[in-house]
């Protein structure tokens, strides 16, 4: 059974492509992310500019025109047809200690605006330093610990507004 993929280009035009069409594509790599492609006897210069493998979204430049391409396999299409939105996550409003340890450093203050991946604090546990980064953009509502404090597993460390 052949797999079918649904390609969405620039959040508008959609195309269905099956495995045999992909395998019969006449493409030659000319660099790490660049290719020379022949389609219907016409040459194309293609380059992958950006790739988000988890979200299955790519920015592709073809003959100096840039396109945003999203790829959905059969599972993605089934999930969408069921009305479920993939990638929806529960918003994290609190950071809790995953294990007992000692707070070595706190890098934020109450009321501070943070963006995803900003450093929040460092927890030492089992002779290892564990850095905690912000799971989302937001504002620090409260900090429930102080530097040098011992914490238990599950104890509230930082809360977001």
From TrEMBL:
The record's annotation in CDD domains points to: biotinyl_domain (cd06850)
> Which Pfam families does this entry report, sorted A to Z?
Biotin_lipoyl
Alphabetical keyword list: Biotin
InterPro entries membership: Biotin_Carboxyl_Carrier/Decarb, Biotin_lipoyl, Single_hybrid_motif
What are the residue boundaries of the Lipoyl-binding domain, all occurrences included? 79-161
This one is known as Acetyl-CoA carboxylase biotin carboxyl carrier protein subunit
Q: Which organism is this entry from?
A: Flavobacterium stagni
- Lineage of origin: Bacteria, Pseudomonadati, Bacteroidota, Flavobacteriia, Flavobacteriales
């Amino acid at each position: 059974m052949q797999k079918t993929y649904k390609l969405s280009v620039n959040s508008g035009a959609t195309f269905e492509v099956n495995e045999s069409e992909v395998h019969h594509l006449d493409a030659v790599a000319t660099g790490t992310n660049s290719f020379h492609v022949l389609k219907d006897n016409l040459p194309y210069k293609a380059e992958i500019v950006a790739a988000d493998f988890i979200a299955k979204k790519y920015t592709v430049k073809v003959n100096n025109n840039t396109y945003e391409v999203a790829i959905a396999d059969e599972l993605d299409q089934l999930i969408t047809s069921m009305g479920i939105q993939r990638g929806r996550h529960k918003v994290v409003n609190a950071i809790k200690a995953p294990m007992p340890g000692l707070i070595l450093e706190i890098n934020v203050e109450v009321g501070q605006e943070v963006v995803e991946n900003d450093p929040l604090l460092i927890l030492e546990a089992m002779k290892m330093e564990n850095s905690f980064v912000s799971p989302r953009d937001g504002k620090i509502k409260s900090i429930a610990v102080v530097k040098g404090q011992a914490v238990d597993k599950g104890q509230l460390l930082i809360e977001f507004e």
